[in-house]
Sequence to fold (264 residues):
Amino acid sequence: MRDGMNSAQGFVGGLIARFAQLPRFFRQADSPLKIEHFLGVCAGAAGLGAMVALIVRAPASLVPVGAVLGFVLPWGWLWWRRRGRFNKFETQLPDALDLMSRALRSGHSLSSGLNIVSTEMQAPISVEFRNVYDEQNLGISMEQALRNMLVRMPNMDLKFFVTAVAIQRQAGGDLAEVLSKISYIVRERFKILGQVKALTGEGRMSGVVLMGLPVVLFFTVYYLNPEYIMPLFNRELGRRMVTVAVIMQIVGALIIKKIVDIKV
Fold:
């Protein structure tokens, strides 16, 4: 009994922690909508998904599925927007480090280098460096302002930069040279990552085909002959088969992702 209560408390605590990080998620995605407005859009999309399922005369058991898909789609868009922002920041980082290195060599301070990046480069890196520049102008230490940026943009290469700045401010050294080395390492990692993507392209394409083909085939057969598909929803054995198929699809997607997702 006590173990069950502890498990329930742990689940509730984890759920609260996830919701507590929701504003950060929206900020990382640079969402144009506030959280309450976005949840309203999700509710409307859920109702629209259920309505579409009713209009196409889908089985009653698929109406909740349409509502769930409608509710999840805006979250998928937000996740895609956040991921795209992370990827663009990662590609901009080497140029930003080179720009800061040249600024330091020409006599500018680290703070001025941040300001140059925020004015000369495009979003999202200009926005994030501008936030760091404004924070340290308001009295926050440079190290803490950079750590705040690392929380907003969790990137390993950025972590190298933040660590290098913290060490240099404590022990001294040629920060311009360190930034040049980090920029070179990041560019070399991009080259290796491009080669890895080229070598694993066939595996990724196979995963997309294997994941999408059953879904496309299901809807095609349902459109051509709905009565042929109905036993999957009218009979207990059919519902079990659908459940097992969905679970196997998810497991297969995770396995394929694990195979082709090579860390560099």
Remarks:
- The chain has 13 helices and no strands.
- The two ends are 46 Å apart (CA to CA).
- The chain has a mean pLDDT of 83.
- The first helix runs from residue 2 to 20.
